[in-house]
Design brief:
Layout lengths: L3 H12 L13 H4 L21 H4 L2 E7 L3 E8 L14 E3 L9 E6 L4 E7 L3 E6 L3 E6 L2 E6 L8 H7 L2 H5 L6 E7 L15 H10 L5 E7 L12 H6 L5 E7 L2 E10 L8 E4 L2 E2 L5 E2 L4 E3 L3 E3 L5 E3 L9 E9 L7 E11 L2 E16 L35 E3 L2 E4 L2 E5 L5 E8 L6 E7 L6 E6 L2 E4 L8 E5 L2 E10 L2 E10 L3 E10 L3 E12 L6 E4 L2 E5 L3 E5 L8 E6 L2 E8 L21 H4 L5 E6 L4 E6 L3 E3 L4 E3 L1 E7 L6 H6 L2 E2 L5 H6 L4 E4 L16 H13 L3 E5 L4 E3 L5 H6 L14 H6 L6 E5 L4 E5 L6 H15 L4 E5 L5 H12 L6 E6 L12 H4 L9 E4 L10 H9 L6 E3 L7 H4 L17 H10 L5 E3 L8 E3 L4 E8 L3 E8 L5 E3 L1 E3 L1 H4 L8 E3 ...
Parallel strand pairs: 11-21, 44-45, 45-46, 46-50, 50-51, 51-52, 52-53
Antiparallel strand pairs: 1-6, 1-9, 2-5, 3-6, 4-5, 7-8, 10-12, 12-19, 13-20, 14-15, 16-19, 17-18, 20-21, 22-23, 23-24, 24-25, 25-26, 27-28, 27-33, 29-30, 30-31, 31-32, 32-42, 32-43, 33-40, 33-41, 34-35, 34-37, 36-39, 37-38, 38-43, 39-40, 47-49, 48-49, 54-56, 55-59, 56-57, 57-63, 58-62, 60-61, ...
Helix pairs in contact: 1-11, 14-15
Length: about 1000
């Protein structure tokens, strides 16, 4: 067997590929093809090669030449800075020896230039570092501030030098040589060299009557400043043609900078003409797109944007041209007209040269061409087709069927009954379905005359959108209110209700409430509303609070449950994972009702009632309130223990032969690794990733990568364009964070994860945006061109619609893609006390397993918490453990281990070997929660799960929640196991870190340590 290194070397020799972030600073080829660096399982992310120590000197400097030693020399640095207050930032001068110069005086310091006098004890090249910073806080969430000026000069030296233009003008002049950055990526571009006030004024004087000045720019020069114009604009002036070249079939992006030079500019508008070439050749105006003025949203619907430019600000208008493959080569001419309210329209000539060649995939294989901007408006996988394992929705009158579940509609359009046919083992279906509701759901309006449930005549007419979705609409009434119900059901079991209640006349209401009476046998467990997963409370009261990311709950048992969320038409997905309070839940006007609304849970003699109330209010005639509801019927699908136990994860980048030798067959590739260096932008080392994936496939292994949209690396070439969209994609915030963000962004963002090893800094994305469309296209590109087998998702920031699309795209290229979701516990004040399982439940139908996670408590929580918050089993998933490597004894009750490779203590190889020895993939998993489980204990605080190979052998997992050491006896249904008590022993094989070897006989009292347990083999 040859090593993965040989595979990669072969790939490069055949393809001639050159690795690296071509316009950044981190060139990977030497790293990848070195003798040992990339195949070692512990291989670190190699730091970029920096020209000096940025942590002490900052990222930027000017070099100046001093021709002869002097007591003092004078220099003016033409730095043209984009930071607002350079006079408040220190300057460090170093001598040719590299030592700091202490005798330095500052003269006039502004954005245009900086005047310095310094002692030059020797001739040579001096360096002037002008943005030194101080980094504090956590390395992954740094707090970077810029050093303030300090006068360290000797008093006598300062006195001798003097002050003022007259004294300094007589000093020897240092000669400015050039600007340098610590690396190419940190360098200020020409579009970040600001025009001086004099240059701006000269430009205004030359155009005395124009309030809007337009500056065409190619994609190679993205506009980077929004509060200043670049030097190049001041020098060349506005107007002129946009001249660019493209291949046939290429998507050509470009921009026009709009500067509101004198006044506010309102309601920018763009119009394109046809492009006309020789001999009647024509590219229609419909081939153009103006991204800043609208597009296609995350749900596939067209939208438009109103763009205003405040006085003095710059608005880049990004545009795209989809050059037809059929276009004749040659020069095409046209124009783009830009207008605004109260201003004369201006025309910008377009001169597009279409080459002879044909672009491959629109040019998408090179991210730096920015052809991928068209992905922002993609509708890929935006349909109602099915996703495995879900089945087409059946419609029989008012009864709607989907995988394992049915919903019967009342005349109101709300559920009259919901049933689940999943069995308790969660591996199949029961002969007798379980009814979730004790009575139909009702939306009740209460006024001074009585209570009125929303009702209508007849049966709702259900219409089919596709195999995966149906919808219906009901017009009804509830006392003084008219009701319009628009609802849909999808194949995963999600019901979405938009309910509009309109007052027929001015009316005073005591309450509007939703009644959900659940069967008591179903309402065993509950999570949400500020409660962690546990037994459903006998009674509980909750009220709306914007400090908490809470708008609903899940109530149910393992094989039948219901999640509900209460919303209105203004719902916007909040930010999550450390950033909730920067974009919290929007309180629904209807349900919240200025803090008067809430939810009551009550255990009643014949039902368990979940009741959402909104309290008293008045409504004017014609006033409408939206009482929207989202319901999710669980489980979503069956679990597949055999598949789960056969897919063994190595959660780290490393040598494939070593990983396979350890027994793993699925590799999760994080960001900050040589083949996936940048957070959520896995496109810049695609060739290296392809080589690794190919090598894994040759070994019968699969590779998944870290890629989501919660945050985005500053390395993404699209960042300047995304910034031009305001806060459609990049969330608004207080700025700060790592130095690159502060130096190159406009300041209104949320700083996110930072990887110090490769200086990768990210910003937080909006909860829903067109970047989701880009993400879907990106996954499709990766599946086609890199061959990834799935995704590792780390605290996802997108919704169910996007998750469905993810699944569809991956299934189009892989027979069984793997998607696993990791989450730290979100049940804390910074995340608004939301349960991770409830937060992400909408995604569960489309993923394969969970990895919950940091801050989950494996020791001091109940079996019910494990079942509902961690295991995923009531929703159709299985998973692994993380925090402190989990509790392996309790984990085995749910088929869970920790993950190999993640930490020194996470080593499930002993358990994997035992699984193989007993043939666990051929066994039936029967959890402790199953009422007729064949193995039970005589204690409620020591539980047993069985892995049964009937007639052959059974593996029994025991785990204790008893507070002290105890002994248990097993109650075994030998017939169910297909074994005879007189012919077997209970053998505990030795497993490192888990248990010593031991043997017990049927009927023996088995000692169990607190918080631990056994794995016993019966054969």
């Amino acid at each position: 067997m040859h090593s993965v290194l040989e595979d990669v070397a072969g790939f490069f020799s055949q393809s001639g590929a050159v690795m690296g972030y071509r316009r950044g600073a981190w060139i990977m080829a030497g790293v990848l093809l070195g003798a040992t660096s990339w195949v070692n399982a512990a291989a670190p992310v190699m730091p970029p090669s920096l020209r000096w120590d940025a942590s002490t000197l900052g990222n930027h400097r000017y070099l100046v030449q001093v021709d002869a030693p002097a007591a003092a020399v004078h220099v003016v640095i033409p730095w043209r800075r984009r930071d607002a207050h350079p006079e408040q930032v220190a300057v460090i001068v170093t001598a040719p020896s590299g030592q700091p110069v202490s005798n330095v005086l500052r003269g006039n310091i502004d954005r245009a230039s900086g005047e310095l006098v310094f002692q030059a004890a020797q001739a040579g090249v001096y360096a002037i570092y002008y943005q030194p910073y101080i980094s504090q806080g956590r390395s992954n969430y740094p707090t970077v501030t810029y050093a303030t000026p300090k006068d360290g000069a000797e008093a006598a030296w300062s006195h001798n030098v003097g002050s003022g233009a007259q004294a300094w003008g007589k000093l020897p002049q240092a000669r400015v040589l050039r600007y340098e950055a610590v690396d190419d990526f940190d360098a200020y571009t020409g579009m970040e060299r600001a025009a001086t006030p004099e240059e701006r004024q000269a430009l205004l004087t030359a155009h005395p009557s124009e309030s809007l000045l337009l500056f065409p720019e190619t994609r190679a020069n993205p506009v980077r400043m929004f509060d200043a114009i670049p030097e190049s604009w001041a020098q060349r002036g506005p107007g002129g043609a946009l001249s660019e070249k493209a291949l046939r079939g290429e998507y050509l992006s470009f921009q026009i900078g709009a500067w509101a030079a004198r006044d506010n500019v309102d309601n920018l508008r763009v119009e394109f003409s046809d492009l006309v070439g020789a001999e009647g050749a024509r590219i229609p105006a419909s081939a153009f797109t103006s991204f800043n003025l609208g597009g296609v949203d995350v749900t596939g619907k067209p939208f438009s944007l109103h763009v205003d430019v405040p006085r003095g600000r710059v608005q880049p208008l990004w545009m795209g041209l989809d050059v037809p493959v059929s276009a004749k080569p040659g020069v095409y001419r046209g124009e783009v007209t830009i207008a605004a309210d109260g201003m004369a329209a201006q025309k910008v000539p377009l001169l597009i040269t279409v080459g002879e060649g044909q672009a491959v995939a629109h040019g998408d294989d090179d991210p730096f061409k920015l052809t991928r901007l068209r992905w922002l408006n993609s509708t890929l996988a935006q349909d109602d087709a099915l996703v495995k394992p879900f089945t087409a929705i059946s419609v029989k009158g008012s009864t709607l069927g989907m995988l394992g579940r049915e919903v019967k509609l009342a005349a109101s359009g709300l559920p009259a009954q919901i049933t689940s046919a999943f069995d308790e083992r969660m591996t199949g279906f029961a002969k007798q379905p379980t009814a979730l509701l004790a009575a139909p759901m009702r939306l009740v309006v209460q006024d001074g005359t009585g209570e009125y449930a929303l009702d209508a005549s007849g049966v709702p007419t259900v219409q089919r959108d596709g195999p995966g979705k149906v919808h219906w609409q009901v017009a009804g009434s509830a006392g003084p209110l008219q009701g319009e119900v628009k609802a849909s059901l999808e194949a995963d079991g999600t019901l979405i209700y938009a309910i509009a209640l309109t007052a027929k006349q001015a009316t005073t209401l005591r309450d509007i409430r939703l009644e959900m009476p659940l069967n008591r046998d179903v309402a065993k467990y509950q999570l949400g509303l500020g409660r962690q997963g546990d037994r459903a409370p006998a009674e509980f009261d909750w009220q709306w609070n914007v400090q908490n990311n809470q708008d609903g709950a899940w109530i149910g048992t393992v094989n039948a449950g219901l999640a509900f969320h209460l919303r209105d038409e203004h719902y916007l997905r909040p930010l999550n994972t450390n950033f909730y309070h920067q974009q919290p839940l929007r309180m629904p006007v209807s349900w919240d009702n200025h803090g008067q609304g809430g939810i009551r849970l009550r255990s009643q003699p014949k039902a368990y009632l979940a009741e959402a109330f909104s309290g008293p209010r008045t409504m004017q005639a014609g006033e409408t309130l939206r009482y929207d509801i989202v319901l999710r019927v669980t489980p979503f699908k069956t679990i597949n223990p055999a598949e789960h136990f056969s897919e063994r994860f190595f959660h780290k980048y490393g040598d494939l032969d070593a990983i396979k030798g350890d027994g793993a067959n699925v590799v999760n590739i994080h960001h900050a690794t040589p083949i996936n260096p940048w957070i959520n932008y896995p496109f810049l080392e695609a060739s290296a990733m392809r080589a690794y994936v190919d090598a894994a496939h040759q070994r019968g292994m699969r590779v998944k990568i870290y890629d989501t949209v919660r945050e985005l690396s500053d390395r993404a070439p699209e960042v300047p364009m995304l910034e031009s969209l305001g806060h459609e994609v990049i969330s608004a915030g207080k700025g700060g964070g790592f130095s690159w963000l502060q130096e190159h962004l406009d300041g209104d963002y949320i700083a996110a994860w930072h990887v110090p090893e490769n200086r990768d800094a990210a910003v937080i994305n909006a909860g829903q945006s067109r970047w989701h469309n880009y993400y879907i296209e990106g996954l499709d590109w990766l599946a086609r061109n890199v061959g990834i087998d799935g995704l590792y998702l780390d605290d996802v920031a997108y919704d169910r619609t996007t998750m469905k699309r993810v699944r569809k795209v991956l299934e189009a290229h892989r027979p069984h893609p793997l998607i696993d979701l990791h989450s730290a516990s979100q049940y804390n004040p910074r995340d608004g006390y939301i349960n991770s399982a409830l937060l992400y439940m909408e995604l569960f139908p489309y993923i394969d397993r969970l990895w919950f996670g940091e801050e989950f408590d494996y020791e001091k929580t109940s079996p019910a918490y494990w079942l509902t918050e961690i295991s995923g089993i009531p929703y159709g998933l299985m998973g692994e453990m993380l925090q402190n490597d989990g509790n392996p004894w309790r984990g085995m009750l749910f088929g869970m281990t920790n993950r190999l490779g993640w930490s020194p203590g996470s080593d499930p190889r002993g358990l994997w070997k035992l699984w193989d020895d007993v043939g666990i993939t051929q066994a039936d998993m029967i959890g402790w929660w199953v009422h007729d489980t064949p193995v039970k204990t005589n204690r409620d605080d020591v539980l047993a799960t069985s892995y049964v190979r009937k007639g052959e052998k059974t593996l029994i997992a025991l785990a204790s929640w008893a507070p002290e050491k105890t002994e248990v006896k097993l109650n075994i249904d030998w017939r169910a196991l297909g074994l005879s008590a007189s012919k077997v022993n209970l053998v505990a094989p030795a497993v490192d870190g888990f248990q010593p070897q031991a043997t017990f006989k049927p009927g023996d009292a088995i000692p169990v340590e607190p918080g631990k347990g056994w794995l016993l083999v019966i054969e």
